[in-house]
Structures are given as structure tokens and as C-alpha cells.
Amino acid sequence: MLPSNEPARSSVAAVRSGAVGRLGLRFGLAAGLVCGLWLLFLHFTGNEPFSPKQIMGLLVVPFAAAASQWLLRREAAPGRPGVGRSLAVGGLTVLLAALLAAGSTWGLATALGDKALAYSRAELVEITRVQQKIRPKEKRNAEFERKELEQAAALSKADLARGTFTWTVLLGMMGAIPAGIFLRK
């Protein structure tokens, strides 16, 4: 048994060649596919696929990142994958899932056309107005609120894809970083 203050010498040899890329690719593609299928599910069940309900599908990404890190740890046993490899496989998983989720959002918005996008804009403007009404009066600013409504009314396919990518990366990394640190040993 190794003393606790000495690093494991076999950690590099224990992780098979390409395990980080292979696990990141497998879990990233699977999580991205689930995000895309969630959008289709929302659309075909009569829900707005570009609404805040979309975020529920993105919540699979942190779990996929943690699962890829856990499998990397299992493959490295009895050695240790180390924090670098663990964070790398989690980050790769999140990045691939985010790219697929954003591509799915853009693709669905393109396939559904301008009518669906106009409906999404109208829904976003309504949500923005409700949020503005509940904002305390001392924090209200007429110029800011006007720009906020203009921005919501000018929503595009690229804005939807960019927002999906950003949310996926943020949510994914919120799960991948702690899991990578925890699962490094």
C-alpha cells in the first residue's frame, strides 16, 4: 500500500491510451443527443421547445460529465486518473454536449420556420413584461426596460443556439468541476 503523501506511480499507465477522448466522446455525444431528443419531445407534445422547459433537458449534461469521470476512475483502478485527466474528460463531455445541443436548437428553429420563432419571440416578450412588472419600483429604469423588450422581440435562431450553448456549458461545468476534483483519486 502506498503512503498517502506519495503519488501513485502507475496512474499514467493505468489509464489506457485515449481513454479521456473515448469517454468524453461517448458521453458527450450521448448527452447532446438526449438534449436534441428533449427538444423534439417538447415540440411533438405541443410544448414550446425554445421555452425555459428546454433547460430540463440540459440538466442531463452534468450527470453525463460525472459519469464519464467516474468511468475514467474505474478504468484507472488501482491507479488514479489524476485531476487533469478527470477534468479533461468532464470538460470534453460538456463541450461536445453543448455543441450538439446548440446545433439541435438551431436545426429545429430552422426546420420549424419563422412562425415558430415568432411565437417564441411573443412568449419571451410576455415573460419579460411580467418580470418587469414584478421588479421593485426603485430598481426600474425605463430605458433599460425598453432595450430589454427590444432585445426579446429581436430573438433569432443564432440567439437561441448561443443561449443553449451557454446554458449547457454553465450547467455542465457546475457538475463537471466538483465531480472531477472529487473523482481524481
Low-confidence segments, given as residue ranges, are: none
Treating each run of at least 4 consecutive H or I residues as one helix, how many helices?
Answer: 8
Helix and strand succession?
A: HHHHHHHH
What kind of assembly state do the chains in view correspond to?
single chain
Could you say which structural class the secondary elements and strand pairing correspond to?
mainly alpha
N-to-C terminal Cα separation, in Å?
Answer: 14 Å
Globular, elongated, flat, extended or rod-shaped: what is the shape? elongated
Q: Give the beta-strand count.
A: 0
Strand content: under 5%
Q: In the residues, how many domains can be counted? A: 1
Q: Share of helix among residues?
A: over 70%
As a whole number of angstroms, the C-alpha radius of gyration is: 21 Å
- Main sheet, how many strands, which sense, barrel? none
Structure description:
The protein is mainly alpha-helical. It has one domain (19-183). Helices cover 77% and strands 0% of the residues. The protein contains 8 helices and no strands. Helix 2 (19-44) packs antiparallel against helix 4 and helix 2 packs parallel to helix 5. The chain is elongated, with a radius of gyration of 21 Å. Pfam families: DUF4199.
Give a quick summary of the entry:
77% of the residues lie in helices and 0% in strands. The chain has eight helices and no strands.
Give keywords.
transmembrane; 8 helices; 77% helix; mainly alpha; elongated
